[in-house]
Amino acid sequence: MKDDAKSRKDALRDHLRESILTLRLQPGADLDEVYLSDAFGLSRTPLREVFRQMAGEGYLDLRTNRSARVSEMSYTTLRDFFLAAPMIYGAILRLAAQNATRAQIDDLKDAQQVFKHALRSGSGEDRALANNRFHDVTGEMSGNVYLLPSFNRLLIDHARIGMTFYRPQTAKMPENLSEASRQHDAIIAAIEAGDEAAAAQLAEDHWNLSRDQIEMFVMPAALDVPLGAAPNLKPA
Amino acid sequence: MKDDAKSRKDALRDHLRESILTLRLQPGADLDEVYLSDAFGLSRTPLREVFRQMAGEGYLDLRTNRSARVSEMSYTTLRDFFLAAPMIYGAILRLAAQNATRAQIDDLKDAQQVFKHALRSGSGEDRALANNRFHDVTGEMSGNVYLLPSFNRLLIDHARIGMTFYRPQTAKMPENLSEASRQHDAIIAAIEAGDEAAAAQLAEDHWNLSRDQIEMFVMPAALDVPLGAAPNLKPA
DNA sequence: AAAATACAATTTGTATACAAAAAAGAATCG
DNA sequence: CGATTCTTTTTTGTATACAAATTGTATTTT
């Protein structure tokens, strides 16, 4: 177990990545250079290099003479997200079905095992990270350097959107999640069979499910309370 | 005219960017930190931050304990390029037609003027940079943060591919270039009219033209020399 | 003479010191 | 009081010094 500067940089990167994907660090949050360099045993020089790299990947925003921030999310980005995601992910899964290696398919199955476990017993954070890992592997499978920059950018906000909207407040949530899990299984099968068309279709289905969940959250069923009655806000 | 550290960083960035896009710095070329920091009046710390950022954008490859390199291009990437480019660029132009502002359309027209001028009297480098600028503006118009990472990555290699394959060796080259220029005009018209479908179609046409040029370069017409005769390699 | 090793020179990575800019707080004026 | 200016404190940016790793060269060994 090495503990050199490089592995401490990796530790910082992983920490920031997980914190951002799980919303432990919220969009727009300021990062403290001296605190982080202290906490991870790095001087500010290598720390700032990590910032620059993660800014390029879409995790952070850098502004001159101001602190680094977790990249923002807005309602505009939500719209842009659902415009771009089906197309990019369709292409990614198509290429994955064409190019996936045996080892990558095994990785994907492992990731799905972890995801299923997170569904049963894990927290929302575990679920988001496991889901992120699953899709990340499909990106590796596609192996197209020109699609990956956008895809990886999408995965960041996919995790964050999931953390926002997949909360146990609607009755249909667990149902949606097991449907998502079934879709993962179908994606694995399509890739393993080299079935491009099926893979592309599954990509679209997967986004429609996400969009439904978000619609449910943004536009909940109206409260069933008679006019004039005081809604019981605090259930015993 | 300021000459502070920030503007020197910008100068370095622009220099590297132009050198890479025009192939003055070839794919795989090593970059000398001390030489560059000397030449641009920066210490190595800010210089390395520029490296990290440009690596994130796809201009450079960084390897630990080894010099930074101009990002590689291979025949694999050429294939990946033509798989991804029509889809991404189609989406970009579609969104550009939806969202372009008056000011952006003026920018695009300016860029096209510069491109036309480069066609007539400029060098191949001028042409590549002007073309890059044109497409860059269409990216701005689309305004979709999820598509731009891949699109910008594509534009880097688009310029480099153009520098490689658009050389004055085939008779059809000038013809192809004026066709490209006409397509630019048509793209401007489609965006100005808000005609999404036309814009998307033009994106596809534009890539087909590029692909034709490359095919012509990679698979030239066979030399018309009778069997047994010595081809005249050095024309008087 | 070729391969292997040891040593020197160069280059990359990190820490620290200092300069410059923002933010926060104190004093002044309306 | 509230807004504004000035001063102090904190934070960000850059330069430099040093440590670690890599590359190149000379020497030794077979």
Automatic annotation (TrEMBL), chains A, B:
The opening ranks of the lineage are: Bacteria, Pseudomonadati, Pseudomonadota, Alphaproteobacteria, Rhodobacterales
Q: Which residues form a coiled coil?
A: none
SUPFAM superfamilies found in the cross-reference section? GntR ligand-binding domain-like, Winged helix' DNA-binding domain
Give the originating organism.
Ruegeria profundi
Alphabetized Gene3D superfamilies for the sequence: GntR ligand-binding domain-like, Winged helix-like DNA-binding domain superfamily/Winged helix DNA-binding domain
Listed name of the protein:
GntR family transcriptional regulator
Annotated PANTHER family = HTH-TYPE TRANSCRIPTIONAL REPRESSOR NANR (PTHR43537:SF53), TRANSCRIPTIONAL REGULATOR, GNTR FAMILY (PTHR43537)
Establish whether keyword Hydrolase is in the entry.
no
Q: Which SMART domains match?
A: FCD (SM00895), HTH_GNTR (SM00345)
